[in-house]
Structure formats: C-alpha cells, structure tokens
C-alpha cells in the first residue's frame, strides 16, 4: 500500500477508536422533573462497532506491504 494511504488509515483508526471509547464512557442520559426521574439505559452497540472499525483501520495501516 501507498504510504499516504497507510497514514490516513492510521489517523482515521485512532479517531474512530477514541470516539468509540468516548461514546462508551459518556454517562447515561438522566432527566429529573420534580420527584420524577427518567433514566435512559445506555446502548453501547454503536460504540463497540466504532471501536472495532478503529482497530481494523489501525491494523490495516500497520500491515507491511511488498518489499
């Protein structure tokens, strides 16, 4: 692969990995109206997919091409 493509894949992979971890760590949504508390359970499916894509992009950028 071209060096430019590898660099772009590495940068995109790091960004996707960081975003996926951020989405997973963000606390659950909570709304309080008087005595009523509404708490929405957090679904981390999208975070797992984003982290997986980030790891795949980083792995592809680190693969050594033909010598």
From TrEMBL:
The chain crosses the membrane at residues 7-25, 45-63. Keywords: Membrane, Transmembrane, Transmembrane helix. The keyword Membrane applies. It comes from the Bacteria. This is Uncharacterized protein. It comes from Polaribacter vadi.
